[in-house]
Amino acid sequence: MVGMTNEAAPGAPAAKGEEWFGHPRQLARLFTTEMWERFGYYGMRALLTLYLAEHFLFNDTTTTGLYGGFTALVYLTPLVGGLIADRYLGAKRSVKFGAIIMALGYFTLCFGGEAAKPYALIDGQRYDVVNKGEGDARQQFVTISGQELRIKGNEDKTVSLLGSDGAEVRKVKAGGFEAAGERSPFYTMLLLAGLSMVTIGNGFFKPNISTIVGSLYAQGDRRRDAGFTIFYMGINLGSLFSQLLCPWLAMTVGWWAGFGLAALGMLFSWGLIQFDGGRLNGYGDRPEGADSSRDLLIYAGAVLTIPVAWFLFSNLMNYVAPEAGSGIMGYIMGLPLMGKMLFGTFLVGVPATLIWSWFNGSRVEFQMMIAAMVLIVFNTVFWTLFEQAGSSLTLFADRNTDLSVFGLFSISAGQTQFFNAFFIVALAPLFSIMWNSMAKRGIEPSIPVKFAIALMGVGAGFLFLVWGAAFAGPDFKVGLWWLAGLYFVHSMAELCISPVGLSMITKLSIARIVGMMMGVWFLSISVAQYVAGVVAQVASVETVGGQVTNLKVSLDTYVGVFTTIGWVSVGIGALLLVVALPLKKLMHGVN
Question: What burial letters (b/e) apply to 561-584, b meaning 16+ CB within 10 Å?
Answer without folding.
Answer: bbbebbebbbebbeebeeebeebb
